[in-house]
Amino acid sequence: MSSGYSENNNFPYDNNQMVLDMILCSLVTVPQPINWDSVARLVPGYTPKECAKRYEELKNNGTSPVDNQYNPLMATGGIPLESLATYIKSSLLDPAEDQEELEVGQGRTGAVSARKSSTEYDKLPLSMNGESMEGSQGPNMVIHVCDEAKNLKEDFVCPRDLLVSEMKYFAEYLSTDAQRWEEVDISVHCDVHIFNWLMKYVKRNSRESDKSEAPKLEPANVISILISSEFLKMDSLVEECINYCHKNMSAIVATPCNMNCINANLLTRIADLFTHNEADEVKDRKDKFKSKIFCKKIERLFDPEYKNADSPANASTLYRCCLCKRLLTKEAEQKIACLPGKINIDQYGNIVYFHIRDKTWDIHEHLSSQFEELKSWRDVYWRLWGTVNWLTCNRCKQSFLCNELSHCQYHPEPAVYPGAASSLGSTGTGIYPCCNQKVLRFDPTQLPRGCKVKDHVIALPEGDDGLESPSSKLLYDLVQHRDLIVVPYSKDLNGESGVIINDDKSPECNVHLEPNPLHGQKSGEIIAVSE
How many Å apart are CA 304 and CA 317, to the nearest integer? Predict the structure, then answer.
């Protein structure tokens, strides 16, 4: 045995034997067999056999040298024997928990495993209650980092409480229960340089940390740090990385980083920080991430619960009218005219348009065909944005879809109304000389029609507040991207609106009135028939 005893075996010659006797005295009530390897690890210089032999000597003597010699020490609270005994009994000497391993993070960049082992307990100074401490942040934990790509291994040390507070992934394994944190051995499969950066971040506010050495995010490392910090549940760092990506995306995609490892949750959080104009400004020559942002923007257009600052309208109710072939939403259908004659008159005499849903039309097929045509999800987004949003023209007084900005109908020459002797047969009927289209002098519908088209005119609110109005923002985005948004004018989809005058007959209208118990009649449907 490496340390001697006095003749009565009651007083050890050194402090190590005193600690050993204290530990052994606490094991009297522990069921056999005792794990002497675990006991020997607590007292340097003693083998398991020596510990077992000394235990038998103390047991046979029937007296405790701790009780006889060290009561004054116990009275001062120097060594809490009771708490030490509890720890020994519940932790190191449990033969049923000899080796246990948890594998987590399979298939991820930073795989972590935790298994039972000793920590740096016996290498660090003991506090008054027998724990290895660093400040007030608990015992030091050792993290073994294995970098298979570079064939490197490195150990990192961090106080338990600090590690758990910053890397919440470890909270499950490093609880405040001494039985657990004394037995956990942490192994991380990760890039050594990235984990070194993470540990500097964890210790950024500690007393021994040099503020000048606080780690900084860079375009070349932010994606790896983002993925690792999200896996380790480092919430504050994840938020920092996401904000950094928003501000520096062009520089990030210019580095040889792998953007495909960003999961859907992180992608959504990053994309939501971009306005569609900011996303448009990202310089992404290899299209590593720009299309992903616009795909998320398209998804957001179809989310009825999402408050979209870029788009007052959403596409959740988008459908195609089987008559005029326009794509419309429920909000826009009563503002946008259909084919001539498809008019509703409400109980107050106002004109209300209606459309008929095409049940054969599918939104997924439409988006796929748009991508085949436009070759870019960015362009698909802007075309869809122009389809669901609308403005009101100050010239024709009609609401129009943003993708029909250039469809304001007009006649280059004013109508001519001949006298009573005219061959037209009525002074109330005129003609446009530019195209010979007939027109009523008193048209109750006041719907626009013309042989030519030009841009709609939008009147914006005056003053500084007008620049921030929804219509101002819509118009700005529309003008900036009109080449992508605006579709060509087609007479098939934009026939003459309102009542059609026939050369041989006056117009025939079928009016369907339905009784209404509250107002006497419901809205009437006026259908103009041309033969």
Answer: 9
Query: Are residues 114 and 89 part of one domain?
Result: no
Q: Is residue 65 part of a domain?
A: yes
Interior angle at CA 165, CA 162 and CA 167, nearest 5:
95
Distance of CA 8 to the CA centre of its chain: 72
Least reliable range by pLDDT among 23-27, 194-198, 210-214, 413-417: 210-214
For residue range 319-370, list pLDDT tens digits in order.
999 988 999 999 998 889 887 667 778 888 888 888 999 999 999 999 999 9
What is the C-alpha radius of gyration for the chain, rounded to an integer number of angstroms? 40
Q: Tell me the two tokens of residue 72.
A: 């004054």
Residue range of the domain that includes 89: 15-96
Strand 524-529 and strand 343-345: the pairing is: antiparallel
> Beta strand pairing status for 184-189 and 140-147?
parallel
Closest CA to 377 of 282, 308, 245: 282
Number of other CB atoms surrounding residue 276 within 10 Å: 21
Would you say residue 5 lies in a domain? no
Same domain, 478 and 383: yes
Q: CA dist 126 to 79, 123, 161, 340, Å? A: 10, 9, 17, 91
Question: Does one domain contain both 344 and 460?
Answer: yes
Count the Cβ atoms, other than its own, within 10 Å of residue 403.
24
What DSSP string describes 473-504?
Answer: HHHHHHHHTHHHHPPPP-TTTSPPPSPPPPSS
Q: Which one has a higher pLDDT value, 213 or 523? A: 213
In a domain, 294, yes or no: yes
- Together in a domain, 455 and 378: yes
Q: Are residues 275 and 175 in the same domain?
A: no
pTM for the whole structure = 0.68
Q: What is the DSSP string of 269-333?
A: HHHHHS-HHHHHH---TT-SSHHHHHHHHHHHHT-TT---SS-SS-STT-EEBTTT--EE-TTTT
